[in-house]
Amino acid sequence: MRKNKLTRKRWPVPPTILFLMITFAAIVGAALLAPVLAPIDLAANDLTTRLLLPTFRDPASPHLLGTDNLGRDVVVRLLYATRTTISISFTGMLIATAIGTALGVLAGLCGGAVDVIISFLTDVRLSVPTTFIGIIFACVMGATPTTTIVVIAITGWSSFCRLVRSQIFQLRGAKFIEASRAMGASGLRIVFEHILVNIASPLIVQATMELSGFILLESTLSFLGLGIQPPGTSLGVMVSTGRDYMLTHWWLAIAPSAVIIVLILQISLVGDWLRDKLDPKLKNAS
Amino acid sequence: MQTREAVLEVENLQKYYPVKKGLLLQREIGRVRAVDQVSFCLYRGETLGVIGESGCGKTTLSRLIIGLEQPTGGEIRFLGQPAGRRMSAGLRQRMQMVFQDPYSSLDPRMSVRRILEEPLRIHTRMTAKEKRQKILPLLEQVGLPEEALKKYPHEFSGGQRQRIGIARALVTGPDLLLCDEPVSALDVSIQAQVLNLFRQLQRRYALTCLFVSHDMSVIRHVSDRVLVMYLGQVMETADKKTLFEAPAHPYTKALMQAVPVPDPTRPAVGAVLEGEIPSPIHAPEGCPFSTRCPHAQERCRAQRPPLYDLGGGHAAACHLYAEEAVR
């Protein structure tokens, strides 16, 4: 509620940010509505129409970005791929944020042995390469969308945990927390009424920043064949299959890569802006 | 004198902080005696001023009473029941605190309405309307407009914030109000405003207060009785008039002389106290003030003086009064 109020107060949102937000919403909207916009069977293929040229090479072609090696329209597949990538990385991000926040709150509030153990786990997690964790999980659990979400959650929580922990250490000394304790508030009430509200804005910013990383991670895993499996598709899968035709049909790999780049740019730039926006000091300055 | 109801009884209260050394195997190399055998009684309707230099344990004392710290020893009884960390919710509701720093004692992400309602949210299950009825008169009492409810703490000045802090402490209608240096973070002109407000509220609600401050003039303004602390111990206690006009303990006398007199024609009194406060880790064996006291004798360094009762509620912990004391 609070955030809406702030945005309204500071209207207008800078035009560049507004543009980024609208285009992002358009891409995500189109991707999520893919089954409605272009109801197709993902597994269907037609080798007679394979590798048709895109409109910018052959103005007579009905396929805007041509067709892929199995004769499927690239634009339609891009919609489905973006849909998979975004839903997987977003779900993963939510789970990672929840785990990270919970552990961070525990570490920050309990301190002592709990803090040592959780900080140790964070360090252990950060010392193991993400892709390595991805490979192990794909081997054990099989390469499914669920596995990818699990890998994102398991690799992503550590940065949230660190952030929340350090924020809580700063907050713990705050007099208003002490005042609340003196009034007789329980620990849970303090967490929900004071702590979570006060760490919400850095957490939201961190989540947007991490989301772009998770999109990349999903694409990386799928590119390596550890994520989404054909006939399902994701941006990473599309780059991976398009790679084989780089010399003759370069747009097959470049188009999904461009979508990844655009999504990440949009999210990071909006995240940057959000960080400045939600900073209480900058807020007080005006 | 009629029998007065004791709201708060503190007996032999102690708070020691261990001083540790070493990285892995920490050993205790000493103890800071922040509060050492403090006893006093606070009666309904009166304000007890606690005064002392920084580090004398006056803040720790108030934190012990409200239960933010666990005492090492001694007893605190509030309304006849044991108080402190484990006091029941019902009892806790009857004791509220005003904090020193109005800038950090209010949650920057809460509106004033939510700040004022916080004690009610914790202790009662009132409807929004009931809560509003409870906080509106208080808001008016502390001199803030109704529009303030929607605003956030950063939109207010220090003095206004402290008014919010005071209003928050009064919402539950407490039997005891602990004030921990409530004006020391404010400008002098604002201090006067807040203190006057405090006096008004004292009279209106017949508040029982423990008012901690290092400022003699502030204490003089608000309190009925005064407790002088030095290195965690009670040096002297008396009603305000006696203490300010006829202080008994050498330390209190020195404090009185240190108060600047706003009269340029009067010659300045030189520094009355020599030396620094001893480190509380290496507090003197006998009387804590013996290292700086102009009257210190052998006995003072060896034996800690008890609080000698000088009659009329006046007591001083100084061997000079061993004979005069009403036994």
TrEMBL record, chain A:
Entry-linked PROSITE patterns: ABC_TM1
Membrane-spanning intervals of the chain: 12-38, 74-95, 102-121, 133-157, 250-274
GO biological process, one term: transmembrane transport
CDD domains, A to Z: TM_PBP2
Keywords: Cell membrane, Membrane, Transmembrane, Transmembrane helix, Transport
Family annotation (InterPro entries): BP-dependent_transpt_permease (IPR050366), MetI-like (IPR000515), MetI-like_sf (IPR035906)
Record's keyword annotation contains Membrane: yes
Name used for this protein in its record: ABC transporter permease
Record organism: Anaerofilum hominis
UniProtKB/TrEMBL annotation, chain B:
UniProt-listed Pfam families: ABC_tran (PF00005), oligo_HPY (PF08352)
GO BP, sorted A to Z: peptide transport; transmembrane transport
InterPro entries: AAA+_ATPase, ABC_transp_ATP-bind, ABC_transporter-like_ATP-bd, ABC_transporter-like_CS, Oligopep_ABC_C, P-loop_NTPase
Molecular function in Gene Ontology: ATP binding; ATP hydrolysis activity
Domain ABC transporter residues, every copy: 8-256
Cross-referenced SUPFAM superfamilies: P-loop containing nucleoside triphosphate hydrolases
Alphabetical keyword list: ATP-binding, Nucleotide-binding, Transport
Protein's UniProt keywords contain Nuclease: no
Matching NCBIfam families: oligo_HPY
Family the UniProt entry places it in: Belongs to the ABC transporter superfamily.
Protein name (Swiss-Prot/TrEMBL): ATP-binding cassette domain-containing protein
Lineage: Bacteria, Bacillati, Bacillota, Clostridia, Eubacteriales
